[in-house]
Amino acid sequence: MKDQYRSRKKNRIWTGKYFFLAIFLLFIFFFFRSALFSSFLEGSEFGGRVKTFFLSKEELFLKNKKLMDQNQFYQNYKEEIYRLKEENKELKARLFYNDKLNIKRKLFDVLDYDPLGLYESLILKDEDEVLKRGDLIFAKYNILLGRVFEREGQVAKVKLFSSLGEKNQFFIVDGAEPLLKLEAEGQNSALLKVSAPRDLEFKNPDKVFLVHPENESYLVAKLVDNKFKIQDTNRILYFKILVNPELLFRVESEINDTLLNEENE
């Protein structure tokens, strides 16, 4: 009887020890669980899957957002590098062309393209304030866009020939042959409309252009539509400016020698 009592007492003591040991181990586990869990999970593919499983939705969302932001940053960086390379190529081509033909022009950055305002226009940065009202503006080479119609400090505004209601006289050229001088009216969206004689025919319909009346090498627009019906008294021609104004980041204008020399000094 006495032995049974001692045995039960001993068992209770060991049970208490095991209980307190379990409490101590549980405390250690919770206190160091983050470090132990991370070191185990980072060490294997299986651990990675387990970690992903136990991560909260919020942590997964934040991690995914961080990866997306990093990917967008690198994508923007690649696009910027590509843009700078293309810009460099275009500048080299412009310089080669202008030097070859002995053309003296100055480049201007395009700040904005406004297709919806009172006029379809380009906003240019004119730091040296050399542009004046009426100056012709070229996209590149000898492709004409329009004229300067206003300048405020170092900002110049260019009214495109395609601006709605804008009327100008141009020669129609069929291949290399100038046909006749007609009025072209802007329709916006880089489009011009010409009302021509009904009997006007073209030998080279794919090479019909509008050119500046004072210089036939200055191209303005290309024929894109020729509307005519038997009952019509006139032939309606639609021409499209040779470049997309929305994509221009730099244009040029012919500046007289005095201004160029003053700038270079």
Computed over alpha carbons, the radius of gyration is 38 Å
Q: How do the strands of the widest beta sheet line up side by side?
A: 3-4-5-2-1-12
Helix count, DSSP H or I runs of 4 or more residues: 4
- Portion in beta strands: 25-35%
Helix content: 25-40%
Shape: elongated
- Structural class call reads alpha+beta
How many distinct folded domains?
2
What are the segments in which pLDDT stays under 50 over at least 5 consecutive residues? 257-265
How many distinct beta strands? 12
Q: Could you spell the SSE succession in H and E letters? A: HHHEEEEEEEEEEEEH
N- and C-termini, Cα separation: 119 Å
Report mean pLDDT, rounded to a whole number: 76
State the major sheet. 6 strands, antiparallel
Short summary of the structure?
Helix content is 38%, strand content 34%. With 265 residues, the chain is of the alpha+beta class.
Provide structural commentary.
- This protein has 265 residues and is of the alpha+beta class.
- The chain has two domains: 2-54; 106-255, no CATH class.
- It has helices at 2-41, 45-54, 57-100, 257-264, and strands at 105-114, 121-125, 136-138, 144-152, 155-160, 167-174, 177-186, 191-197, 208-212, 215-227, 234-241, 250-254.
- A six-stranded antiparallel β-sheet has the order 3-4-5-2-1-12, with no helix packed on it. A six-stranded antiparallel β-barrel has the order 6-7-8-11-10-9.
- Helix 1 (2-41) packs across helix 2.
- The longest helix is centred in the N-terminal third of the chain and has 44 residues, at 57-100.
